[in-house]
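Appendix B, record 7
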Amino acid sequence: LLILLVALCSPVQTLSLAAVVDNAPSLVDGLTSAVLTPLILLIVSILFTQLSYPVLNFFSVILRQRIRRDFFTALADKRGRVSYRYVEDPEAYDLMNRVRKDADLHISDCLFRCGRLLTLAITAGGNFIILFTSAWWAALITITLSVILTLYAYHSGKANYDAKRKSQRLIRRADYYAEV
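Structure tokens (predicted):
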């Protein structure tokens, strides 16, 4: 819930700042409610955003500790029940070692990245709607560039993952030979 509120703060800040700028000429007559209300909303949303990050970090530490406690014992139990034929198979053994290393951190990182993706989608969607209602042509340019850059990031991320997987396989093999 807190993540969703933080995500909604960015469009609120954009609209508040636009209202302050639109009503800035009325400051000549004095500080009116047309300027004061959006200004207060802008300040409150910025404060909320900045103060919510320590709270989110606190909950992330608690979540990581719970995942580590529950998942590590289940993983150790599962690894103890693995059939010997899988230990002898180099591909299966490579997979088990790759998955085992910092598995609890991978799970918690996946949860946090999903939350961050949700936050980013809500923030970008809200700002995109504001942009689309103001200048539709700018929104179309933004969508086009976003699609191109997303495809490029996907392909480069896939190549990076494959290279890391191959290098980790060689490192594990070297570690195995060092133990022998």
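Remarks on this record: Residues 28 and 35 are 11 Å apart (CA to CA). The chain has six helices and no strands.
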